[in-house]
Amino acid sequence: MEIRAFSKYRKRALSLVRGKVLEIGVGTGKNLPYYPKDVEVIGIDFSRNMLKKAEERRRKLRLENVTLLYMDAQDLEFEDNTFDTIVSTFVFCTVPDPIKGLKEAYRVLKPGGRAIFLEHMKSESKLLNVPLYLMEPFIRTLLGTSLLRETQRNIERAGFKIEKVENLFYDIVRLIIATKD
């Protein structure tokens, strides 16, 4: 489920990438049009069907700087300190063990590297969480995602230093920029 307004959030998030980029949970490749041409992108996903759609989008856009791989975010097959930038958009609401996946992202990010998370999560407002709690059983069943993850806290628990948080839709959708010391 993609909300059109999210495309402007994607554009904003991907304007921040540099160097060698790992996109965790590339899905159908919705971010691909927004990457700068001067970066090398490796996109991973554990759904072969999603990767097939992402590959079709990559070919249609004629992106030679993008490689797509079948891989689990919780068990990344890369050496430590490989990437300049890590990107995740609306992913850590579905990863079964988000802390494990985030620790893997931290491991493969170079020291001084930047992680860019565009994620929806539990609000700090109890009032805003009421509809999220009401929708949770349906959303989890239909889409396999959770609206109640504490992703910002999980990012910190995984070792990242949060540099900036932008609330894009109240504080339910956030752009989080983090680094690895």
From TrEMBL:
- Give GO MF terms, alphabetically: S-adenosylmethionine-dependent methyltransferase activity
Q: Which UniProt keywords are given for this protein, alphabetically ordered? A: Methyltransferase, Transferase, Ubiquinone
Residues forming the Methyltransferase type domain are 22-117
* Any single Pfam family the record assigns to this protein: Methyltransf_11
Q: Species name for this entry? A: Pyrococcus furiosus (strain ATCC 43587 / DSM 3638 / JCM 8422 / Vc1)
Q: Which GO terms describe its biological process?
A: methylation
Keyword Transferase set for record: yes
Protein name per its UniProtKB record: Ubiquinone/menaquinone biosynthesis methyltransferase
